[in-house]
Write a structure and sequence with these properties.
The protein has 181 residues and is mainly alpha-helical. The protein has one helix and no strands.
């Protein structure tokens, strides 16, 4: 039995050594694999941190772009509303311009007609002034003629009075036979 026990002990020793060697081998193998996995994990973790940082940057950039887009949309909407107002005012002003152009044309036509009437009236006035001056000269001449004729009438009346006096005197001298007349 001692052989069996001894063999059993050797077998047990051999099994323990094999188990220990296998355990050490497995430990070394798994330690190496764990180191590789740990290195890969650390590398992936670093990449993940880097990607996370890049993602944060991209997220901030996206937020900035969204903010700018929102501001641009608001500005575009305001500009669109202002454009509508300006377009409406432009159309109103063009209508007013057209009305004013028509009024201007009508007023220019009226002005031309009025200037023509004024020119005609001036010409008529000049003709009337000339006629008036001519008539005034004629009145002056006729007044002179009237005065001249009045003087002639006075002279003729004086002559008539003198002749009547002579006639009276002659009649009275015939009656009285006097020769003093």
């Amino acid at each position: 039995m001692s052989y069996i026990t001894r063999n059993a002990n050797i077998l047990l020793l051999f099994l323990i050594i094999i188990s220990s060697t296998a355990l050490v081998g497995a430990t070394v193998y798994f330690q190496n694999n764990f180191d590789k996995i740990n290195e890969a994990y650390n590398l992936k973790l670093a990449q993940l941190n880097e990607i996370s940082s890049e993602l944060d940057k991209q997220q901030r950039a996206l937020d900035d772009v969204r903010s700018e887009l929102s501001i641009k949309s608001a500005r575009e909407q305001q500009l669109g509303e202002q454009y509508q107002v300006v377009q409406s005012e432009k159309e109103t002003l063009e209508g007013q311009k057209e009305q004013l152009t028509q009024q201007k044309t009508a007023l220019e036509s009226e002005l031309t007609e009025t200037e023509s009437e004024l020119s005609s009236a001036k010409n008529s006035l000049e003709a009337e002034k000339a006629l008036s001056a001519s008539l005034q000269e004629e009145v002056t001449e006729l007044t002179g003629d009237v005065q001249s004729l009045g003087n002639q009438v006075d002279d003729l009346e004086d002559d008539i009075d003198n002749l009547n006096a002579k006639i009276s005197c002659l009649e009275s001298t015939e009656d009285a036979n006097e020769g003093d007349c």
